[in-house]
Structure formats: structure tokens, C-alpha cells
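Two entries, shown back to back:
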Amino acid sequence: MKNPYPSHPHFPQLTASLEARDQKIQYLEGLTGSSRSALIHACLSELKGAHLILFQDKEEAAYFYTDLVTLDGSPDRTLFFPSSYRRSVQYQQTDEANIITRTQTLRRLSERRVGSFIVSYTEALVESVVSKKQLGESTLEIKQGEKID
């Protein structure tokens, strides 16, 4: 199914507004379910560069991420940046899968293989991240068939 939003009469005005350097925050009302994802996907696909889409909580961000991957047809242009923690920073219980996803996102950003969409939530953004140098120094690349000690 083709995304209907690019043919809407207000679509060019919205994308121009998003592209303007003086306006950084846009508020959209009256959209429910996956219609938010479809509209944002249509708008941001028209614009160059990486776009951070920020949500209040992990659940809302995860649903939006899934919608974007489905709409785009490929997870290559869409990155998810989760918190390192299982539930909350206050419990200090890290989640290995989240740490791996977070590291992969940072690596893709540092390599400039940036996706068009980076989806995250406030809790994930307040965590400290390693520098590009630290990430490079602590990364061990292993290739299939390679023998290591």
C-alpha cells in the first residue's frame, strides 16, 4: 500500500516547515495509531540527513520504530537507541541486548553510515555515552572463520 500523505495538499508546507532551520520542533495533533508513523516517514523521507525522533518512554518509541521499519521496507535506514538498563537507571540492572543495540547505533553514527531515522526516548538520551575514540579502542572485530586466542 502506498503512503497517502505525500499527495495531501498540506504536505509540501509541512515538509518545508520541517526543512526550515528556524523551526526545530513540530507538534502534530489528531493523528492516531500508525498514522503518525506514516506521516513522519513520508515527511522525513523527503528531507536529507539524519532525523532524531524522540518519545516519552521506551514502549512508545519501540512501536514507532517497528512502524518505521515496516513502512520503509528495510531496517537499514532506521536506528533504535535504547537505554542500557532493563527497567530504569535506578535499578542498575543492565540489559545486554540493549547495550548491543545502543553500541551498534553509536558505531553506525560514528562511521557516518547514518540511518535516516534515529528513534529513542528521554531515558536513553540522558545516559552517558563513550567517545568515538573509546568506542574504537574497546571494539574487537571478529570475522567468520577467523581463529583467535
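entry 2 starts here
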Amino acid sequence: MNPLTPLEVLYDGASGNGMPLPDSLAGIYGTLAFPARPGSPYIISNFVSSIDGVAALDTKGSLTGDVISGSNAHDSCVMGILRAASDAVIVGAGTLAASPSHLWTPEYIYPPQASAFRKMRDALGKQEPMLNVIVTDRGTIDPSIPLIQSGSVQVLIVTTRTGVSRLSKMDLPAWVRVVAGDNAKLLTARQIIEAVVSVRPSVSMILVEGGPHLVGYFFAEQMLDELFLTLSPQIAGRVGNEERMGIVADQLFAPAHPLWGSIVSVRKAADHLFLRYAFASNVNVFT
């Protein structure tokens, strides 16, 4: 695979602590900084969307993001950098079902920079294995998938009391933990983050990778600090009753309660745009 060209920086207003990107990653992305938040996790999300706002295809068994991005290598590398910066990656059961062979680690999404990702995590003091968090209200997962069986990552399943009942009948490996929220049938974003903090008290950054229903919870509860959004130069389209969601599903904000973001940075690789927005959040209540 040919080395990636540097992302063109059109605007960067980020401030805070700079990430220790190894030279090979800094040569692609440039500088990456996040505001400090001692004692409370900084929560970010990462999505790719088509020009017409499609972020999720109703296509089980394939990586929706790859289809929308066109398997763009810069998008995969940026995703790897964000995973490397994070202690935990959160995905919903729908995202897991759509990509059952996936592992939510930096080296899995972009293997050419695997050693650089390890150096970055070492420099950040992240010695523990990546924590992959599965969110499922009903406890409906396939226990035979690589994420559950490989042992290469630690897995946390966050579910309801109803979901615990179903999961308790599965023979899950020792590296898979199950934590239940307070409700019998529904989870909140706050409960999900509390579950992550309960098993990783030292967590400083959490990455939410979807899907649209899950990230909708985080926006609705103002539990998201930043959104990294890759804008792919394709029109995906919609027809009839086919479900093709944007980055948020089952939540209504505008016109009564619109959520406005502040632009943090804009980068470009050929015809793909890499956007970063900051949002007002309530995450600091964990301090």
C-alpha cells in the first residue's frame, strides 16, 4: 500500500493537550489536540456520511462506513488515530450485526500504521488492551463472533436487566464483562458511560462509533463533546421504505431544540472532507 499523502489543513482551531502522534501519523494528520478534562472522560464520535446525509445503509454483513467512504484510506487512518487516542470504543448492537467480523481497534481498521498506533498508545500511557463496548437493550448478540471469542480485546456488554437474563444463558469468555443499567428495557447514554467508568476508572477518552440510534442518545442527553465527520463525495440516495439513516436516528431536535456545533477543524484529502465539531456537553458532571 502506498504511503498516504498529508491531509490538507484548511482550518484548525483546536486547543488543549496535543496527542503524541508518531512521525508517520503526524505526517498524515498534522497536530491533534483535545481540551483537558481531569477526572472525567472526554467523549467523541466518528462517522462518515454521503453528501446527501446517508450514514447507515441497511446492509448487514458489510462495513457501512467502507461503502459510504469508498474504502477511503485517509478515513480509515483517521479512525485508527481516534481509536488509538481512546480507552474505549462504543458500538451498538446494530453496528455489530452489520460488521460481525470487526474488531474496534486502531490496527484492525488501518493495518499499515499498526506499529505507530502502538507507539501512540504507549506514549499516552494506555497499557491496558482496548476496551470494546457493545450496547444492546435486549442482549441480542452472537457469542461466536471474533470480537467475543478472540481475546485480543477486552469486551464490555452494556445492557438492561432484561438483556442480562438472556446473556446469562450464553457461555461468554472470561474477558467479556456484562454490566446492566438501572432500567429493565431501555439504556441511557449516562448509564453506558457509567458502566464504562465502572470497569475502567482511569478512562480519559471514549469514542462512540455508532450507529445512528446510539449516537442519538448521546446527543439527546448532551453527552457528546465532539463529532468527527468525514464527508464522502458521493450521493447515496433513498427510495421507498428502505431505511437509510443519517448520523442521528429517532431523535428530533430542530426546530424547537436545535443542537449547534462549533467548527474545530477542516481537513481535506482529494474530494473527501474531514470535519470536526465541538458541542456543549454535560459530561463534566462525572467529576
